[in-house]
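Hi C.,

You asked whether I'd gotten around to modeling the 467-residue construct. I have! Everything is below, sequence then structure, no commentary in between.
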Amino acid sequence: MKFSQKLVCIMLLVIAAFFAVGGAVLVNGSFMDRLSAAAEQEQSMHAMLCGVVEDYYLDQTGRGEDTCGDDFITAATWRAGDLARGVYSQGLFRASADPAQDEAYAIYGLQDGQSILQYGPNVTRTYRSDLLGGLVMVTTFDVTEIFAARNRSLQRFFLLEAAVVAGAAVVVWLVSRRLTHPLTVLTAASARIAAGDYALRTRMHTGDELEILSQGFDQMAGAVQDKVEALELSVQQRDDFVGAFTHELKTPMTGIIGYADLLRSMQPDPEEQREAAGAIFHEAQRLEALSGKLLQLMGLGEHAPQLVPVQLDSVFAEARRAVAPALNGCILTMQSNGLTVQGDADLLCDLVINLVTNAAKASTPGSAIAVCAEQADGSIRLTVQDHGQGIPADKLARVVEPFYMVDKSRSRRQGGSGLGLALCSRIAQAHGGTLAMESELGKGTTVTVTLPAPNQTAAELAQEEPV
């Protein structure tokens, strides 16, 4: 049974119960009032009849007439009967000291001053009073109409209650449908979300607890959507990573196997041998660089680096020595401004080396590459600027993805693996910083890494970043 149906049944039961109790009390109260009023009239009539009989008894006694015979009883009954308007029946009896001989008691079961209701074809009420001279006056009144009126009132009330309950059923059903509509919406929404429609929101505005429930439901749905999207993105990135890694691994392995098979199965001249050995060496270097950067990426994902104050002078000096063979004739300038950054010296050195190496690969011999560190808004901003080929705007957002290369043939020819910028982005994140890129095709690229200054937390750095 639906909640709205349960609500209708409960409300109808409550309405019917209260209406029945209230109606029964009202009808019974009216009935008791009429019965009490009739009793007062009956008692007055009974007292009047008793007075008539006693007056007649005193009159006959004063005249010296016989008051003990049946003739007196008949005459007194006749005299009282002329006044007995509305009396169902009456009787005049002789009292007896022995209850077994008391005719009135034997017939009606009454003693002096008592009354009784008797139920039969007619409902009657009988009164008894002991009079002078051992006389007993018994009068009976018909109260059937009072009980019949009560029964008619009850019947009319039950018909009225049935009509009221029927009308209330329609109203309560409509009201319950209206009240439970938000629950119906939430139920349907939960079913759709369970079926995969994670973008669905209820957005109800009822101004009560159901609106609060709707807001909580929407927040929960939003959290589920975020988690599912994050999971789907993670799965997609994993699949892309595995596919790209397989492809990048297959390319050098194909070259190595091909040249190795050439050396094994043929007798090349010394020049061809040197060329094949050089190709094998070059591809092996690519594999070594690929495995090294993969290990670095996995290490950053599993273990957070220990951050300490690091002088950028030493980082730049070490990076300059490491990238000197890869500059390809480019002019490198580095300016640390004596700044200190909160970080890991080895990772920061790798960060600078990768950024400068990428800049050199994208630049022509003789062009300038500038590395500069400056303090701004309480954080350290490290920029690497080149005047090389630049990156197309539609590909700028993807260059930090693992194995993504704008020009794959050029990158592989230069020994690239597509992991350099991905590693730089992960290093920046591991330091609680960010990596941003600006590039214009044909004019060059500027990479900005924002890192926390000493005694600055990553949360404080995030608050300072412009939205």
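If it helps when you're writing up: The chain has eleven helices and eleven strands.

Thanks,
B.
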